[in-house]
Amino acid sequence: MYQAAPLSAFLSATCQEKHPPPALDPQFNCPRHAANDADGQSLAARSLLTASLLRDVSPSRLSIRVADTVGQRREASVLVSKMYGWRGYRTEGAETTARPEVRSARNDASPTGVTLIAFLGQRLVGTLTVGVDSPAGLACSELYPDEVARLRAEGARICEFTRLAVDGAEHSTQLLAMMFHVAFIYARQLRGGTDLLVEVNPRHAAFYRRMLDFSQLGPERVCSRVNAPAVLLGLKLEHAEQQIARFGGHDEIARGVRSLYPLGFRPEEIARIASRLGAAA
């Protein structure tokens, strides 16, 4: 099994963002709830009602999609290799998280999961893969077999986030929040996940603890496939679900609470995203 590089290789720029990015629906590239139009009508309501009519892409519009073609998954892998190589990681271990013999035609990156791709206009700017525990195993079980085995013994339904790559700092905080929330929806609502695991560079572990409430589950070790240090972090998806329900959609308090959860989606948006994600994945 190939090992994904530490997940947070590209998060250092997120705390430097100066201007709040636009809030956008991730499936149909339509404006979300952060503003009103000239007539005073909520863009949230209009975007949800007319999403199917808003498929043209503007240069400043963020969107998140499922990589459901070979070409899209190849683009995601190229972005991962590019960004990991730029950070000095070996890139052969970042190409995929599953052995060739267990990869599915549906999703090369994860036989039991999904790869998300993020666009700014028509430019690919981010990717994140969600894996679900299966006989094919998890990427993190290679470096942390005991920790993963312990969760399995407790009856946990484990999911993992791997192969995160973000190209540039523009809109990075909003982009990360959108990708993570869509990935949470897939892991929790569509796959019934109870526990989320990530391997991150130790330098970025504090970001995950502070912004998403992760806790450290495993000691620092060296990921030999990418020649970089990593620590194992875990998050109860029930807790994430509660935080999203409490804070999601309240962009105005995001900076005050130093958390990504307020940049998440509102309940009515989550239901629509889950439906579209289920159809696409």
TrEMBL record:
N-acyl amino acid synthase FeeM catalytic core domain span: 76-235
N-terminal signal peptide: none
Protein name as it appears in the record: N-acyl amino acid synthase FeeM catalytic core domain-containing protein
